[in-house]
Structures are given as structure tokens and as C-alpha cells.
Design brief:
By secondary structure, the chain is an alpha+beta fold. It has a single domain, classed as Inorganic Pyrophosphatase. The protein is 27% helix and 30% strand. It contains 4 helices and 9 strands. Strands 1-4-5-8-6 form a 5-stranded mixed β-barrel. The chain has a two-stranded antiparallel ribbon with strand order 2-3. β2 and β3 form a beta hairpin.
Length: 198
Amino acid sequence: MPEKPRAKTPFDRLSPTSACGSLHVVVESPAGSRNKYKYDPKLGLFRLNRVLPYEASFPFDYGFAPGTRSGDDDPLDVVLLADAPTFPGCIVRARPIGVLRARKEGVVNDRLLAVPLVSRIHHDVHSLEDLSPGVLLSIERFFRTILNIEGGEHQLGGFQGVEKAAQIIAKASEKRTSRLQKVLKATRAASRRKSETK
């Protein structure tokens, strides 16, 4: 008997980008939590995936970009540098600022870095260069710690900027739209502005 097609949830209907060209981020695990939540597309709900060790908790909000598919066939992972923790299922319009390149068991498993459009702390952040080196170090250290605990073949390949992030979003999008072109245009403009001020 063929499987019944499941009804689409609001998260499944959400495109990767908004009309203004920002990135939609669906938060799964908020900052400060040791619980790793994961969106289950079959249920249309969030489930507890695992619990981080006592010495570890998310130093940032962690989620995904809807309407995208990464090398591991999951939506693109997003590290969201929010002013304060949100909650599982919160949708945030964000500005991509870079990417932490990664592979898991030989498959691409990149993590986008983004900042919310609504932010008091990060309203002037448009690229990785706008962050203090300590922020990037703490992000990388967190993933190295977790990956070491989990075991398996994991590789982190360092950070790359907004241009690479936009290319990854465009490539991973299930539908290439004019909105994605806006993301590319906005990230390129931010890169140019930053280089002109140096």
C-alpha cells in the first residue's frame, strides 16, 4: 500500500528567505540548553534528540534554514547569534555572515552563521570580521568538543565569509528564487562595504 502523503506544516511551507532577502531560521535548540531538539518533518513537531554532557551547553541558538537540503540530506544547520535565547520553533529573520565548513563521515555538513535582523548587539554585524575573534573561537571550540564526544569521522574546515555562505544557501535551496538572489546581492554588498572601510 503506497504511503499517504503527509500534510505540509507551516515549517515545511516556509521558504529559505523572506521577501526582503533575509534568511529564515527555525530555532531548534536555544542558547544555554543542554537539550538538543530536532524538528521531525514526519510529525511536524520538535522532539528531544539527545542531551549534551554536563560540561556542555549551546552557547548560541541552533537551528536550520527551511526549504534547503545539505550534503547530509538534512536542512542547512544555522548558528544564530541572538541577543538572548529564543525557543524551539521560533522563526527568526536573519542575516547570514559566514559559514563554518564541516564534514561528517565524508559528507558535507556545514554550519551557517547568522545574526537576527532584530538585534541590539549585532545590528552592525555584516561579516565575520565584525565579530570578536573570541566569538568564533568559542563556536569552533564548542563543535570540536561535541564532535570529539560523539566520535566518528568529523572534520572542521575553518570559517569562510558571507559570499561563501550565500553560495551554499543558493546551492542547498530546493527552489532557486529571486529571493535567493537578493541574499547574494545583500551579502556581496556587505562584503564590499566592509572592504572599502578598511
